[in-house]
Design goal:
297 residues, alpha/beta, Rossmann fold, 6-stranded parallel beta sheet, 3-stranded antiparallel beta sheet, 11 helices, 11 strands, DHS-like_NAD/FAD-binding_dom, metal-binding
Length: 297
């Protein structure tokens, strides 16, 4: 791995500013670290205690509950509150809006492992966002009997109408969801097993691949990677390195306070930035803006 360290934040911002100015296209990629930086931190225990007092009393300390076994009434009580808080309640987010301003009028795409849809809520074109891990905005049959999904917003509203904050449970058994087609159990449409229905996301993935393939040898691509760790490195980190390695004139900026390192063979094409996203954006905002203009080659 590349052990080179960025000497300081100002130097990092200067390089990012130059690379962005020289880029013809920008691919923004993001992992869970970006959601946390924007305020959607699944590990925030105070927020968890506020939203889920009953589950907190039972010992829950993180919103990552894959593998936690709860009765259906508690399980769907959790999901209703969690999705309403993360996916449907938030208004505009300043950090994501700053990212949208950062790419400005550059031709760009987004690929993210996050399933909470903040890019689309903050000015990025929905048709240019690829979310291969799913979206809290959909639910699916657990079988699945159909390779399709349904809008989760009506589901969440119905569950919240029957939700008791004191117990954390759905009080009306009739409100617990079942597949509208076959009557079996349902789950939120996120990638947690082989039953995941990925058909809704394949068209965007195909369009992104076509966009990448359409670049000629002179097209300069900049990958801006935010908050991508090692929970699912094959979704964000590894593909970004692969593209940088195999597409001509591609550069990678990896923004992550911990583990920002990049492969040694990409030393001249990749920049590890061991700082929080907001600090880098502050440094970019305070720098000379004439450097954003493309340079001649």
């Amino acid at each position: 791995m590349n052990t080179h360290r960025v000497p300081d934040l100002t130097a990092a911002a200067r390089t990012v500013r130059t690379w962005l100015g020289e880029a013809d296209r920008v691919l923004v990629t993001a992992g869970s670290g970006l959601s946390a930086a924007a305020g959607y931190d699944y590990g925030d225990q105070e927020r968890l205690k506020e939203l889920f007092p009953a589950l907190h009393r039972m010992g829950l300390r993180s919103r990552y509950i894959v593998g936690v076994h709860l009765p259906p009434a508690l399980w769907w009580g959790y999901w209703a509150v969690h999705i309403d808080d993360i996916r449907y309640t938030p208004g505009p987010n300043p950090l994501y809006q700053r990212l949208r301003a950062l790419v400005a009028d550059k031709e760009h795409w987004v690929m993210t492992s996050n399933v909470d849809a903040p890019f689309a809520r903050n000015g990025f074109a929905p048709e240019r966002i690829f979310t291969p891990q799913g979206d809290y905005g959909h639910y699916q049959c657990t079988v699945p009997c159909l390779r399709t999904t349904w809008d989760s917003h009506p589901l969440v509203k119905g569950l919240l109408a029957a939700y008791d904050p004191a117990t954390g449970a759905i009080t009306d058994p009739a409100a617990l969801p079942h597949c509208p087609n076959c009557g079996e159990n349902v789950e939120i449409n996120v990638r947690i097993g082989p039953q995941f229905v990925d058909e809704p996301y394949l068209p965007a993935g195909n369009r992104l691949q076509e966009w990448l393939n359409s670049a000629d040898n002179g097209t300069r691509l900049l990958i801006l990677e935010f908050g991508a760790g090692f929970n699912t490195p094959g979704v964000i980190r590894t593909p970004g390195e692969h593209l940088t390695r195999h597409l001509p004139n591609t550069r990678l900026v990896r923004i992550k306070p911990s583990h920002p390192h990049t492969p040694a063979d990409l030393r001249e094409q990749a920049l590890p930035v061991p700082f929080d996203t907001d600090l880098l954006l502050d440094a970019l905002d305070s720098g000379p803006h004439d450097a954003w203009a493309p340079s001649t080659r």
